[in-house]
Here is the input.
Amino acid sequence: MSIGAGAVSAWVWNSYISAGPLAQSTIVHIKRGSGMNSIAHTLYKHDVISDPLVMRIMARLSKQHLSLKAGEYEFPAGISMQDALNKIVGGDVYLRSFTVAEGLTSWQVVQVLNGIQALEGEIETIPDEGSLLPETYSYEMGATKQEQILHMQQSMMKAIDSLWDGRDQNLPFQTKEEAIVLASIVEKETGIHGERKKVAGVFINRLRKNMALQTDPTVIYAITGGKIQNNGQGPLGRRILLKDLAVDSPYNTYKYPGLPPGPIANPGKASIEAVLHPESHNYLYFVANGKGSHNFATNLQDHNSNVARYKAYLRSKK
Here is the structure.
């Protein structure tokens, strides 16, 4: 809002609209309940403005002192008092952000949130697995951790709702919940965008043949319950062993055919899209090739050859 120069002295007006003393961009926290006097003093203390009295005068003349909004504000270098006041009146707050990576378990997401000091409160219970959409989220100073959980859950519901109706026909699962379960497995098996639909196609083919999915990440989840180790030695804190494949859990897809009873992680949109629109092919097997991607096979003999090549590659790296 601007005030005509005739309403105030030329000096006050010029001080109000001219570039301020701020040398570089800075973030200032305007606390809840702060009045115009307190705000002007805070801005002066942070070198955003040169004269608190001028800001107070102009705020009262324009009645903007009645519409001040708390929060964090980012002020660019040289901002004028007029623009600084307009920013606070307009509630143009500084937005912080955090990123939830695709494939994190809900326990891991809670660890991410607990590490953000700017978020308030505590998360009392671990959210349901697969209920949180991995994305980058923005928040204001004073927001709570629980609010971010609710936001992520709402985002996941919106994502699956928007994708579900356009899914391919004759998929071997019936519900949105089952789609998220399979998407979580695809997410843990490959982080390569171009491979997701191909990997999804393998699992779709296996489900149609009532073959066990035989995927290591489900065994890891059966053992850890999603409480992943982060010591650089894999999610178990060690390599997966042959005896692990025999663990008696409905999540163990080596022991029990079909989908596990729930997701094993929080899948991103790309993995959800992959299971709803899987690549059509005859592959039933895949294994890492040591180059960041996978080799695929239609039969066990070819698959065993691919596995042998991968083991030879690993031996060559020792």
Notes: The first strand starts at residue 26 and ends at 30. The CA atoms of residues 13 and 284 lie 76 Å apart. The chain has a mean pLDDT of 93.
